[in-house]
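Reminder: ligand-aware prediction takes two inputs, not one.
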Amino acid sequence: MKGLSSGDSALQKVRAAKEALTHVESNMLVGLGSGSTAHYAIEALGDLLERGELTDIAGVPTSEASGALARKRGIPLIDLPAGGVDVAIDGIDEITPELDAIKGLGGALTREKMVAASASMLILIGDASKAVDRLGMKAPIPVEILPFGWRRTQTDLEALGCRPRLRQVAEQTFLTDNGNYILDCFVSPPIDAVQLACALALQPGVVEHGLFLGMAQLAYIATAETVRTYRKGERR
Ligand code: 5RP
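Here is what comes back for the chain with ribulose-5-phosphate:
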């Protein structure tokens, strides 16, 4: 990519995105993730369609922004069907060698999780900064909540051991594409991610949380030198 060096995180994201696209074949329904890395994948998918290297592709976007980009790139879109998608490609905020991830700093976690859970194959992509040994080392866990009674939900999440902070952007409360709020839950690793995920899922007022545990089959993490492949169940 012009003007970018191999140590540049944008170039790493592009390389990871292109690697993921090698799993997309003609006639597939593709889950289109959200965030900058997923946007590189959408751009690259648009290029493949434009060049006729892939045909009869449709996409399921996980955010309004990804839908707008896909439309601009000529990718036909449909709503998530009952049968799910063939492959979903999405970015991450953190990923462990075991393929457990935190997602949602872009605020699209609920639709991302629905599409990811429906996918025959989920591929996560990111640059080297996203690789961690333990979840919660760099990123908070975003939790989408109903605006109704949000202060009570915040108190409940504190009781689970998190430090939840209502997401603000430009001094305004951030609203998801679903019209909800986000509590960014800071934690002190090591955490029992499975236990926390279960507790969050059971919490009234919580729509969805950004812990994506054991969902992905594959991840491509680009460093300055190479693109690392993480496979589910493979010991590292
Ligand atoms: C959006 C997400 C994104 O996938 C995640 O935040 C990664 O974003 P980026 O690729 O821009 O670093 O979960 O809800």
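Residues 136 and 189 are 6 Å apart (CA to CA). The chain is about 30% helix and 25% strand. We will return to this case in the review session.
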